[in-house]
Write a structure and sequence with these properties.
This protein is of the alpha/beta class. It is built from ten helices and nine strands. It starts with a helix and ends with a helix. The relative contact order is 0.17.
Length: about 250
Amino acid sequence: MKMSAFLFGLAVACTSALAHGQVKNVVLVHGAFADGSGWKAVTGILERGGYSVYVVQEPLTSFEADVAATRAVLDRSGPCVLVGHSWAGMIITELGAHPSVRSLVYVDAFEPQLGETAGGLQSKFPPAGGQSVVPYGAGFVYVKPEAFAADFAGGAPAGVAHFMSISQQPIATASFDARVSVAGWLQKPSYATVGTNDRQINPELLRFMAKRAGSTTIELPASHVIFLTHPKEVAALIEKAAKAAR
């Protein structure tokens, strides 16, 4: 009888340990004026830690198209931590209720409430580098290449910032008026970074959104490309979310 009780307790403990560590997938979603390659350093750290990483490439042609591209990855990822940078905060918030998502990580990202838009949030706390976002043509906007290093990619190596500036992916202007119909952070645990030198999303706005959502938050002396300049810290926050997930 004692041996049976011991074996039962051991089985329960093992089951609990497996459940605790079951989230080993991470889905990374890039923001406006960028693409998935920016996640390379973070991806390397996560993969060395035993995580399977999926990098979404959104078209940035509309909110709906970006949501669809991300949903297609979630449909095959299995249980995951869903991570979004900048504009992608809108996307991961909309998809937070997806059954694959166990937690959300906002990397200097919009963290909207139901019915909010990215443009509306920006108007609450205008960013220091907002004037560098200008019309690209055909209903899209981009960051002026000559302002990119200072207003978007501060702290990144000069060569990296230059290449990002000339290879940036413009975003449809109408996307900033799209309203989220789901607030994923109301349903799932959330985490957030605040780059105190961010010139694309005002740090005060990042703090406001994270506090409202009750997100576990870290602040770093970083620009908008916090995932490039502080990949270890960003990866550590993602791992924290994965280890705490159920």
